[in-house]
Design goal:
The protein has helices spanning 45-58, 73-106, 114-156, 158-161, 172-194, 201-233, 237-278, 291-297, 308-331, 339-431, 433-436, 460-519, 526-531. With 532 residues, it is mainly α. Helix 7 (237-278) crosses helix 8 and helix 10 (339-431) packs antiparallel against helix 12 (460-519).
Protein backbone atom coordinates (compact mmCIF):
# COMPACT_ATOMS: atom_id res chain seq x y z
CA UNK A 1 0.00 0.00 0.00
CA UNK A 2 1.05 3.63 -0.22
CA UNK A 3 3.63 4.96 2.19
CA UNK A 4 1.15 7.46 3.65
CA UNK A 5 -1.84 5.18 4.12
CA UNK A 6 -5.25 6.69 4.73
CA UNK A 7 -6.44 6.04 8.24
CA UNK A 8 -9.95 5.04 7.24
CA UNK A 9 -8.51 2.23 5.10
CA UNK A 10 -6.75 0.53 8.03
CA UNK A 11 -9.72 -1.72 8.83
CA UNK A 12 -11.54 -1.89 5.47
CA UNK A 13 -11.00 -4.43 2.73
CA UNK A 14 -7.84 -6.53 2.46
CA UNK A 15 -5.53 -5.07 5.07
CA UNK A 16 -2.43 -7.05 4.15
CA UNK A 17 -0.83 -8.15 0.91
CA UNK A 18 -2.26 -11.41 -0.42
CA UNK A 19 0.25 -14.28 -0.34
CA UNK A 20 -0.11 -17.68 -2.03
CA UNK A 21 -1.14 -20.63 0.11
CA UNK A 22 1.74 -22.80 1.29
CA UNK A 23 0.66 -26.25 2.50
CA UNK A 24 3.79 -27.26 4.35
CA UNK A 25 2.29 -30.53 5.51
CA UNK A 26 4.26 -33.71 4.79
CA UNK A 27 2.89 -37.24 5.06
CA UNK A 28 5.74 -38.15 7.38
CA UNK A 29 4.22 -35.84 10.01
CA UNK A 30 1.19 -38.15 10.04
CA UNK A 31 3.03 -41.47 10.37
CA UNK A 32 3.33 -42.30 6.68
CA UNK A 33 6.97 -42.76 5.80
CA UNK A 34 8.80 -44.56 3.05
CA UNK A 35 6.69 -47.06 1.08
CA UNK A 36 3.74 -46.58 3.37
CA UNK A 37 3.44 -42.99 2.10
CA UNK A 38 2.81 -44.51 -1.35
CA UNK A 39 0.16 -46.97 -0.09
CA UNK A 40 2.45 -50.01 0.27
CA UNK A 41 1.58 -52.03 3.41
CA UNK A 42 4.97 -53.84 3.46
CA UNK A 43 3.46 -57.37 4.04
CA UNK A 44 4.64 -60.33 1.99
CA UNK A 45 1.93 -62.41 0.29
CA UNK A 46 4.07 -65.56 0.46
CA UNK A 47 4.47 -65.24 4.22
CA UNK A 48 0.75 -64.54 4.53
CA UNK A 49 -0.08 -67.83 2.76
CA UNK A 50 2.44 -69.73 4.88
CA UNK A 51 0.88 -68.41 8.09
CA UNK A 52 -2.59 -69.23 6.72
CA UNK A 53 -1.60 -72.87 6.23
CA UNK A 54 -0.14 -73.00 9.71
CA UNK A 55 -3.35 -71.53 11.17
CA UNK A 56 -5.40 -74.12 9.25
CA UNK A 57 -3.40 -77.01 10.65
CA UNK A 58 -3.99 -75.66 14.17
CA UNK A 59 -7.76 -75.91 13.60
CA UNK A 60 -9.32 -72.62 14.52
CA UNK A 61 -12.67 -72.98 16.26
CA UNK A 62 -15.82 -72.65 14.18
CA UNK A 63 -17.76 -69.46 14.78
CA UNK A 64 -20.84 -67.91 13.26
CA UNK A 65 -19.69 -64.35 13.97
CA UNK A 66 -18.74 -62.17 11.03
CA UNK A 67 -16.73 -59.57 12.97
CA UNK A 68 -13.14 -58.58 12.91
CA UNK A 69 -12.72 -60.06 16.37
CA UNK A 70 -12.71 -63.53 14.76
CA UNK A 71 -9.94 -62.68 12.35
CA UNK A 72 -6.64 -64.33 12.61
CA UNK A 73 -3.57 -62.53 13.86
CA UNK A 74 -2.28 -62.08 10.33
CA UNK A 75 -5.54 -60.62 9.11
CA UNK A 76 -5.62 -58.30 12.08
CA UNK A 77 -2.12 -57.05 11.18
CA UNK A 78 -3.12 -56.47 7.55
CA UNK A 79 -6.21 -54.51 8.59
CA UNK A 80 -4.21 -52.52 11.13
CA UNK A 81 -1.59 -51.53 8.55
CA UNK A 82 -4.27 -50.45 6.08
CA UNK A 83 -6.13 -48.54 8.78
CA UNK A 84 -2.92 -46.70 9.72
CA UNK A 85 -2.58 -45.58 6.12
CA UNK A 86 -6.19 -44.41 5.97
CA UNK A 87 -5.96 -42.71 9.35
CA UNK A 88 -2.75 -40.91 8.36
CA UNK A 89 -4.32 -39.78 5.11
CA UNK A 90 -7.39 -38.63 7.04
CA UNK A 91 -5.35 -36.46 9.42
CA UNK A 92 -3.24 -35.25 6.47
CA UNK A 93 -6.36 -34.12 4.63
CA UNK A 94 -8.08 -32.71 7.72
CA UNK A 95 -5.04 -30.56 8.56
CA UNK A 96 -4.87 -29.40 4.93
CA UNK A 97 -8.58 -28.54 5.00
CA UNK A 98 -8.12 -26.62 8.25
CA UNK A 99 -5.20 -24.71 6.71
CA UNK A 100 -7.32 -23.85 3.66
CA UNK A 101 -10.24 -22.76 5.86
CA UNK A 102 -7.94 -20.52 7.90
CA UNK A 103 -6.40 -19.15 4.70
CA UNK A 104 -9.83 -18.36 3.24
CA UNK A 105 -10.89 -16.75 6.52
CA UNK A 106 -7.70 -14.64 6.66
CA UNK A 107 -8.10 -13.37 3.10
CA UNK A 108 -11.82 -12.88 3.13
CA UNK A 109 -12.03 -9.06 3.14
CA UNK A 110 -14.34 -7.10 5.34
CA UNK A 111 -17.55 -6.05 3.65
CA UNK A 112 -17.25 -2.63 2.01
CA UNK A 113 -20.37 -0.48 2.05
CA UNK A 114 -20.24 2.52 -0.33
CA UNK A 115 -22.16 4.86 1.97
CA UNK A 116 -19.99 4.17 4.99
CA UNK A 117 -16.81 4.37 2.92
CA UNK A 118 -17.76 7.76 1.47
CA UNK A 119 -18.54 9.10 4.93
CA UNK A 120 -15.18 7.84 6.22
CA UNK A 121 -13.37 9.56 3.35
CA UNK A 122 -15.18 12.84 4.02
CA UNK A 123 -14.52 12.56 7.76
CA UNK A 124 -10.75 12.27 7.34
CA UNK A 125 -10.82 14.97 4.68
CA UNK A 126 -12.51 17.31 7.15
CA UNK A 127 -9.66 16.68 9.59
CA UNK A 128 -7.24 17.89 6.92
CA UNK A 129 -9.45 20.96 6.49
CA UNK A 130 -9.90 21.76 10.19
CA UNK A 131 -6.96 24.17 10.36
CA UNK A 132 -8.19 25.81 7.16
CA UNK A 133 -10.98 27.38 9.19
CA UNK A 134 -8.55 29.25 11.46
CA UNK A 135 -5.70 29.97 9.06
CA UNK A 136 -7.86 30.80 6.07
CA UNK A 137 -10.20 32.95 8.13
CA UNK A 138 -7.28 34.93 9.53
CA UNK A 139 -5.67 35.23 6.08
CA UNK A 140 -8.99 36.24 4.56
CA UNK A 141 -9.59 38.92 7.20
CA UNK A 142 -6.11 40.41 6.79
CA UNK A 143 -6.47 40.33 3.00
CA UNK A 144 -9.90 41.93 3.18
CA UNK A 145 -8.55 44.66 5.46
CA UNK A 146 -5.66 45.26 3.07
CA UNK A 147 -8.07 45.49 0.12
CA UNK A 148 -10.21 48.01 2.03
CA UNK A 149 -7.14 50.08 2.86
CA UNK A 150 -5.96 49.97 -0.76
CA UNK A 151 -9.36 50.95 -2.16
CA UNK A 152 -9.75 53.79 0.34
CA UNK A 153 -6.27 55.02 -0.53
CA UNK A 154 -7.18 54.99 -4.20
CA UNK A 155 -10.41 56.77 -3.43
CA UNK A 156 -8.61 59.55 -1.54
CA UNK A 157 -5.74 59.98 -3.98
CA UNK A 158 -7.38 58.96 -7.23
CA UNK A 159 -6.77 62.31 -8.95
CA UNK A 160 -3.04 61.92 -8.48
CA UNK A 161 -2.45 58.22 -9.07
CA UNK A 162 -5.24 57.56 -11.58
CA UNK A 163 -5.77 53.92 -12.57
CA UNK A 164 -2.08 52.99 -12.63
CA UNK A 165 -0.57 50.35 -10.41
CA UNK A 166 2.39 51.38 -8.26
CA UNK A 167 5.87 51.19 -9.68
CA UNK A 168 7.31 48.36 -7.61
CA UNK A 169 9.21 46.56 -10.33
CA UNK A 170 12.34 46.91 -8.17
CA UNK A 171 11.85 45.49 -4.73
CA UNK A 172 13.10 47.11 -1.56
CA UNK A 173 15.81 44.51 -1.02
CA UNK A 174 17.31 45.24 -4.40
CA UNK A 175 17.32 48.99 -3.76
CA UNK A 176 18.98 48.49 -0.37
CA UNK A 177 21.56 46.22 -1.99
CA UNK A 178 22.39 48.95 -4.53
CA UNK A 179 22.74 51.53 -1.77
CA UNK A 180 25.05 49.27 0.23
CA UNK A 181 27.11 48.63 -2.90
CA UNK A 182 27.62 52.30 -3.73
CA UNK A 183 28.37 53.02 -0.07
CA UNK A 184 31.08 50.32 -0.08
CA UNK A 185 32.37 51.57 -3.42
CA UNK A 186 32.62 55.15 -2.15
CA UNK A 187 34.14 53.99 1.13
CA UNK A 188 36.82 51.99 -0.66
CA UNK A 189 37.63 54.88 -2.98
CA UNK A 190 37.80 57.34 -0.08
CA UNK A 191 39.99 54.94 1.91
CA UNK A 192 42.54 54.92 -0.90
CA UNK A 193 42.55 58.72 -0.94
CA UNK A 194 42.85 59.08 2.85
CA UNK A 195 45.46 56.36 3.49
CA UNK A 196 48.43 58.58 2.54
CA UNK A 197 47.22 61.54 4.59
CA UNK A 198 47.48 60.00 8.06
CA UNK A 199 49.75 57.70 10.03
CA UNK A 200 47.38 54.72 10.33
CA UNK A 201 47.53 53.97 6.61
CA UNK A 202 44.76 52.05 4.83
CA UNK A 203 43.01 50.82 7.99
CA UNK A 204 42.69 54.29 9.38
CA UNK A 205 41.56 55.62 6.01
CA UNK A 206 38.86 52.94 5.80
CA UNK A 207 37.47 53.85 9.22
CA UNK A 208 37.08 57.49 8.23
CA UNK A 209 35.94 56.77 4.66
CA UNK A 210 33.21 54.30 5.49
CA UNK A 211 31.80 56.56 8.17
CA UNK A 212 31.61 59.51 5.77
CA UNK A 213 30.16 57.28 3.02
CA UNK A 214 27.43 55.92 5.29
CA UNK A 215 26.38 59.43 6.38
CA UNK A 216 26.44 60.62 2.75
CA UNK A 217 24.20 57.75 1.53
CA UNK A 218 21.76 58.06 4.43
CA UNK A 219 21.30 61.80 3.89
CA UNK A 220 20.68 61.20 0.17
CA UNK A 221 18.09 58.47 0.81
CA UNK A 222 16.23 60.64 3.35
CA UNK A 223 16.26 63.61 0.97
CA UNK A 224 14.87 61.48 -1.87
CA UNK A 225 12.39 59.30 0.05
CA UNK A 226 10.93 61.76 2.55
CA UNK A 227 11.77 64.94 0.66
CA UNK A 228 11.36 64.84 -3.11
CA UNK A 229 8.59 62.22 -3.12
CA UNK A 230 6.38 64.26 -0.81
CA UNK A 231 7.32 67.60 -2.40
CA UNK A 232 6.58 66.58 -6.01
CA UNK A 233 3.76 64.02 -5.72
CA UNK A 234 1.68 64.37 -2.56
CA UNK A 235 -1.80 65.91 -2.94
CA UNK A 236 -1.86 67.57 0.48
CA UNK A 237 -0.15 70.98 0.51
CA UNK A 238 1.05 70.49 4.07
CA UNK A 239 2.87 67.28 3.18
CA UNK A 240 4.31 68.95 0.09
CA UNK A 241 5.74 71.76 2.22
CA UNK A 242 7.11 69.17 4.67
CA UNK A 243 8.69 67.24 1.79
CA UNK A 244 10.17 70.38 0.29
CA UNK A 245 11.72 71.33 3.60
CA UNK A 246 13.21 67.85 4.10
CA UNK A 247 14.51 67.82 0.52
CA UNK A 248 16.08 71.27 0.82
CA UNK A 249 17.71 70.52 4.15
CA UNK A 250 18.88 67.09 3.00
CA UNK A 251 20.34 68.25 -0.32
CA UNK A 252 22.11 71.21 1.32
CA UNK A 253 23.45 68.94 4.06
CA UNK A 254 24.71 66.46 1.48
CA UNK A 255 26.43 69.16 -0.60
CA UNK A 256 28.03 70.73 2.47
CA UNK A 257 29.19 67.32 3.69
CA UNK A 258 30.86 66.41 0.40
CA UNK A 259 32.48 69.87 0.03
CA UNK A 260 33.62 69.75 3.64
CA UNK A 261 35.23 66.31 3.15
CA UNK A 262 36.98 67.56 -0.01
CA UNK A 263 38.29 70.72 1.73
CA UNK A 264 39.32 68.65 4.73
CA UNK A 265 41.28 66.29 2.46
CA UNK A 266 42.86 69.37 0.81
CA UNK A 267 43.82 70.77 4.23
CA UNK A 268 45.28 67.40 5.27
CA UNK A 269 47.47 67.27 2.17
CA UNK A 270 48.64 70.89 2.76
CA UNK A 271 49.47 70.06 6.39
CA UNK A 272 51.30 66.92 5.24
CA UNK A 273 53.53 68.96 2.89
CA UNK A 274 54.22 71.50 5.63
CA UNK A 275 55.21 68.75 8.09
CA UNK A 276 57.41 67.16 5.45
CA UNK A 277 59.24 70.45 4.89
CA UNK A 278 59.74 70.83 8.65
CA UNK A 279 60.88 67.19 9.03
CA UNK A 280 57.98 66.28 11.33
CA UNK A 281 56.08 63.81 9.14
CA UNK A 282 56.24 61.06 11.76
CA UNK A 283 54.29 63.14 14.25
CA UNK A 284 51.71 64.43 11.78
CA UNK A 285 48.05 63.36 12.22
CA UNK A 286 44.96 64.49 10.39
CA UNK A 287 43.15 64.70 13.73
CA UNK A 288 45.34 67.71 14.56
CA UNK A 289 43.52 69.71 11.89
CA UNK A 290 40.56 71.65 13.26
CA UNK A 291 37.26 70.88 11.44
CA UNK A 292 35.99 74.36 12.41
CA UNK A 293 38.87 76.07 10.66
CA UNK A 294 38.32 73.88 7.57
CA UNK A 295 34.62 74.74 7.54
CA UNK A 296 35.32 78.49 7.84
CA UNK A 297 37.94 78.27 5.09
CA UNK A 298 35.31 76.94 2.68
CA UNK A 299 33.74 80.37 2.37
CA UNK A 300 33.32 82.55 0.43
CA UNK A 301 34.79 80.46 -2.45
CA UNK A 302 33.56 76.92 -1.81
CA UNK A 303 35.09 75.60 -5.06
CA UNK A 304 38.62 76.66 -4.12
CA UNK A 305 40.39 73.27 -4.02
CA UNK A 306 44.14 72.94 -4.64
CA UNK A 307 44.48 69.13 -4.78
CA UNK A 308 43.29 66.87 -7.58
CA UNK A 309 42.73 64.16 -4.97
CA UNK A 310 40.25 66.47 -3.21
CA UNK A 311 38.50 67.14 -6.52
CA UNK A 312 38.23 63.39 -7.17
CA UNK A 313 36.90 62.89 -3.67
CA UNK A 314 34.31 65.65 -4.23
CA UNK A 315 33.23 64.21 -7.57
CA UNK A 316 32.90 60.71 -6.12
CA UNK A 317 30.93 61.90 -3.09
CA UNK A 318 28.51 64.01 -5.14
CA UNK A 319 27.95 61.12 -7.55
CA UNK A 320 27.14 58.73 -4.73
CA UNK A 321 24.94 61.34 -3.08
CA UNK A 322 23.00 61.84 -6.31
CA UNK A 323 22.50 58.08 -6.74
CA UNK A 324 21.30 57.82 -3.13
CA UNK A 325 18.79 60.63 -3.72
CA UNK A 326 17.54 58.87 -6.87
CA UNK A 327 17.28 55.51 -5.13
CA UNK A 328 15.32 57.03 -2.28
CA UNK A 329 13.05 58.93 -4.65
CA UNK A 330 12.28 56.31 -7.28
CA UNK A 331 13.64 52.87 -6.36
CA UNK A 332 12.63 52.04 -2.82
CA UNK A 333 8.92 52.48 -3.37
CA UNK A 334 6.43 54.17 -5.67
CA UNK A 335 6.97 57.88 -6.23
CA UNK A 336 3.58 58.64 -4.75
CA UNK A 337 3.97 58.41 -0.96
CA UNK A 338 2.11 55.53 0.65
CA UNK A 339 0.92 53.91 -2.59
CA UNK A 340 3.65 51.29 -2.70
CA UNK A 341 3.19 50.52 0.98
CA UNK A 342 -0.54 49.76 0.77
CA UNK A 343 -0.06 47.92 -2.51
CA UNK A 344 2.68 45.71 -1.07
CA UNK A 345 0.59 45.14 2.03
CA UNK A 346 -2.32 43.94 -0.12
CA UNK A 347 0.01 41.77 -2.22
CA UNK A 348 1.57 40.17 0.86
CA UNK A 349 -1.86 39.52 2.36
CA UNK A 350 -2.98 38.00 -0.95
CA UNK A 351 0.15 35.86 -1.20
CA UNK A 352 -0.31 34.68 2.36
CA UNK A 353 -3.91 33.81 1.59
CA UNK A 354 -2.80 31.98 -1.53
CA UNK A 355 -0.11 30.17 0.46
CA UNK A 356 -2.71 28.97 2.98
CA UNK A 357 -5.00 27.89 0.15
CA UNK A 358 -2.15 26.16 -1.66
CA UNK A 359 -1.08 24.42 1.55
CA UNK A 360 -4.60 23.11 2.02
CA UNK A 361 -4.71 22.16 -1.64
CA UNK A 362 -1.38 20.32 -1.38
CA UNK A 363 -2.50 18.47 1.75
CA UNK A 364 -5.76 17.49 0.09
CA UNK A 365 -3.90 16.53 -3.07
CA UNK A 366 -1.64 14.20 -1.09
CA UNK A 367 -4.67 12.85 0.73
CA UNK A 368 -6.58 12.21 -2.49
CA UNK A 369 -3.48 10.61 -4.00
CA UNK A 370 -3.36 8.25 -1.02
CA UNK A 371 -7.05 7.53 -1.53
CA UNK A 372 -6.50 6.68 -5.18
CA UNK A 373 -3.57 4.44 -4.29
CA UNK A 374 -5.71 2.72 -1.65
CA UNK A 375 -8.41 2.01 -4.21
CA UNK A 376 -5.88 0.70 -6.73
CA UNK A 377 -4.29 -1.47 -4.06
CA UNK A 378 -7.63 -2.82 -2.90
CA UNK A 379 -8.68 -3.61 -6.47
CA UNK A 380 -5.52 -5.62 -7.07
CA UNK A 381 -5.68 -7.28 -3.64
CA UNK A 382 -9.29 -8.34 -4.05
CA UNK A 383 -8.56 -9.85 -7.45
CA UNK A 384 -5.46 -11.56 -6.05
CA UNK A 385 -7.41 -12.88 -3.04
CA UNK A 386 -10.10 -14.34 -5.27
CA UNK A 387 -7.50 -15.98 -7.50
CA UNK A 388 -5.55 -17.40 -4.54
CA UNK A 389 -8.70 -18.77 -2.89
CA UNK A 390 -9.58 -20.57 -6.11
CA UNK A 391 -6.02 -21.92 -6.31
CA UNK A 392 -6.26 -23.08 -2.69
CA UNK A 393 -9.44 -25.03 -3.43
CA UNK A 394 -7.84 -26.56 -6.51
CA UNK A 395 -4.84 -27.54 -4.41
CA UNK A 396 -7.14 -29.13 -1.84
CA UNK A 397 -8.94 -31.07 -4.59
CA UNK A 398 -5.62 -32.27 -5.96
CA UNK A 399 -4.53 -33.36 -2.48
CA UNK A 400 -7.81 -35.21 -1.98
CA UNK A 401 -7.34 -37.10 -5.25
CA UNK A 402 -3.79 -37.96 -4.22
CA UNK A 403 -5.02 -39.21 -0.83
CA UNK A 404 -7.75 -41.30 -2.44
CA UNK A 405 -5.20 -42.86 -4.79
CA UNK A 406 -2.94 -43.82 -1.86
CA UNK A 407 -5.87 -45.15 0.17
CA UNK A 408 -7.16 -47.16 -2.80
CA UNK A 409 -3.75 -48.72 -3.32
CA UNK A 410 -3.60 -49.70 0.35
CA UNK A 411 -7.16 -51.08 0.21
CA UNK A 412 -6.33 -53.21 -2.83
CA UNK A 413 -3.36 -54.67 -0.98
CA UNK A 414 -5.46 -55.26 2.12
CA UNK A 415 -8.12 -57.14 0.16
CA UNK A 416 -5.61 -59.18 -1.86
CA UNK A 417 -3.72 -60.18 1.27
CA UNK A 418 -6.93 -61.23 3.00
CA UNK A 419 -7.99 -63.23 -0.04
CA UNK A 420 -4.59 -64.90 -0.26
CA UNK A 421 -4.72 -65.71 3.46
CA UNK A 422 -8.21 -67.24 3.34
CA UNK A 423 -7.63 -69.20 0.16
CA UNK A 424 -4.47 -70.71 1.57
CA UNK A 425 -6.28 -71.38 4.88
CA UNK A 426 -9.17 -73.14 3.12
CA UNK A 427 -6.89 -75.37 1.04
CA UNK A 428 -4.87 -76.39 4.05
CA UNK A 429 -8.04 -77.07 6.05
CA UNK A 430 -9.43 -79.30 3.33
CA UNK A 431 -6.12 -81.15 3.06
CA UNK A 432 -6.19 -81.92 6.80
CA UNK A 433 -9.89 -82.74 7.02
CA UNK A 434 -9.31 -86.40 8.02
CA UNK A 435 -6.89 -85.46 10.79
CA UNK A 436 -8.95 -82.56 12.14
CA UNK A 437 -12.28 -84.36 12.10
CA UNK A 438 -15.21 -82.17 13.17
CA UNK A 439 -13.01 -79.15 13.16
CA UNK A 440 -12.29 -79.58 9.44
CA UNK A 441 -15.04 -77.23 8.12
CA UNK A 442 -13.87 -73.64 7.63
CA UNK A 443 -15.31 -71.01 9.92
CA UNK A 444 -18.31 -69.11 8.46
CA UNK A 445 -16.54 -65.75 8.50
CA UNK A 446 -14.10 -67.08 5.93
CA UNK A 447 -16.89 -67.11 3.37
CA UNK A 448 -16.99 -63.28 3.02
CA UNK A 449 -14.16 -60.79 2.59
CA UNK A 450 -14.90 -57.46 4.31
CA UNK A 451 -14.42 -54.67 1.74
CA UNK A 452 -12.27 -51.94 3.25
CA UNK A 453 -14.00 -48.58 3.56
CA UNK A 454 -12.22 -45.66 1.86
CA UNK A 455 -12.40 -42.21 3.52
CA UNK A 456 -14.84 -39.81 1.87
CA UNK A 457 -12.77 -36.62 2.26
CA UNK A 458 -15.85 -34.43 2.02
CA UNK A 459 -15.04 -30.72 1.40
CA UNK A 460 -18.50 -29.19 1.31
CA UNK A 461 -17.66 -26.90 4.24
CA UNK A 462 -14.55 -25.56 2.53
CA UNK A 463 -16.39 -25.02 -0.75
CA UNK A 464 -19.18 -23.10 0.99
CA UNK A 465 -16.64 -20.94 2.79
CA UNK A 466 -14.72 -20.29 -0.44
CA UNK A 467 -17.92 -19.43 -2.33
CA UNK A 468 -18.96 -17.00 0.42
CA UNK A 469 -15.52 -15.40 0.38
CA UNK A 470 -15.54 -14.96 -3.39
CA UNK A 471 -19.05 -13.53 -3.23
CA UNK A 472 -17.83 -11.00 -0.64
CA UNK A 473 -14.89 -10.14 -2.89
CA UNK A 474 -17.19 -9.60 -5.88
CA UNK A 475 -19.46 -7.35 -3.80
CA UNK A 476 -16.45 -5.38 -2.54
CA UNK A 477 -15.08 -4.91 -6.06
CA UNK A 478 -18.45 -3.48 -7.10
CA UNK A 479 -18.47 -1.19 -4.04
CA UNK A 480 -14.89 -0.09 -4.78
CA UNK A 481 -15.81 0.85 -8.35
CA UNK A 482 -18.80 2.85 -7.13
CA UNK A 483 -16.75 4.69 -4.47
CA UNK A 484 -13.91 5.32 -6.87
CA UNK A 485 -16.22 7.01 -9.38
CA UNK A 486 -17.64 9.10 -6.55
CA UNK A 487 -14.13 10.01 -5.39
CA UNK A 488 -13.16 11.39 -8.80
CA UNK A 489 -16.31 13.52 -8.90
CA UNK A 490 -15.71 14.67 -5.33
CA UNK A 491 -12.12 15.67 -6.13
CA UNK A 492 -13.33 17.84 -9.01
CA UNK A 493 -15.88 19.53 -6.74
CA UNK A 494 -13.22 20.21 -4.08
CA UNK A 495 -10.83 21.69 -6.66
CA UNK A 496 -13.58 23.93 -8.02
CA UNK A 497 -14.40 25.05 -4.48
CA UNK A 498 -10.78 25.92 -3.72
CA UNK A 499 -10.45 28.01 -6.89
CA UNK A 500 -13.85 29.75 -6.58
CA UNK A 501 -12.64 32.12 -3.81
CA UNK A 502 -9.96 33.63 -6.00
CA UNK A 503 -12.45 34.01 -8.85
CA UNK A 504 -14.94 35.80 -6.59
CA UNK A 505 -12.28 38.21 -5.36
CA UNK A 506 -11.35 39.11 -8.95
CA UNK A 507 -15.03 39.60 -9.86
CA UNK A 508 -15.69 41.90 -6.89
CA UNK A 509 -12.62 44.03 -7.63
CA UNK A 510 -13.74 44.26 -11.25
CA UNK A 511 -17.18 45.46 -10.11
CA UNK A 512 -15.55 48.17 -7.99
CA UNK A 513 -13.55 49.42 -10.96
CA UNK A 514 -16.61 49.40 -13.20
CA UNK A 515 -18.55 51.48 -10.68
CA UNK A 516 -15.68 54.00 -10.55
CA UNK A 517 -15.59 54.31 -14.32
CA UNK A 518 -19.38 54.63 -14.71
CA UNK A 519 -19.95 57.13 -11.91
CA UNK A 520 -16.75 59.05 -12.55
CA UNK A 521 -16.19 59.32 -8.81
CA UNK A 522 -13.11 58.52 -6.83
CA UNK A 523 -15.07 57.64 -3.68
CA UNK A 524 -15.51 53.93 -2.96
CA UNK A 525 -17.86 52.91 -0.12
CA UNK A 526 -16.21 50.94 2.63
CA UNK A 527 -18.78 48.11 2.40
CA UNK A 528 -18.18 47.71 -1.29
CA UNK A 529 -14.43 47.74 -0.86
CA UNK A 530 -14.76 45.18 1.96
CA UNK A 531 -16.80 42.88 -0.31
CA UNK A 532 -13.98 43.09 -2.83
Amino acid sequence: MAKNTVRWGADVGCQTKVKPLELRNDLAEHGLKGKRAKGELGISRHMTRKEARADAQDGLPVSEALTQDQWSEREQMVAERAEEVRRGLGTWMSSASATVRNYVADYTPIDIHPDQLREAIKSEENEYRHYETDDTTEAKESHSAAIVELQQFRARHGDRIGDRTPDIKKNVEQAIAILVFIMILEGGFNALLFKDAQANGLIGGMMIAFGVSAVNVCIGVVAGFFGLRYAFNHANIGWRIFGGTIATVGILAGLLLNFFVAHFRDAVETGLHTADAAGEVGGFSLFSISPTEVFISMFPNIFALDSFVALGLLFMGLTVFGLAVYEGYDRISDRYPGYGRVWRKERKAYERRQAVRNAVRDDLSDYFTSCRQWFETQQSRHVAAKREIEKAMNLLDARRDFAIAIASRAADQERSLKVAYRQAHRRARNANRDRLGDQAPCPAYFDEIVTPQLPSYEMAKEREQAQAAMQTIDNNITALNICREWLEQHIQQVQQGLSSIEKKVAEEIGKVREVKQVKGSTHVPVDQARRA
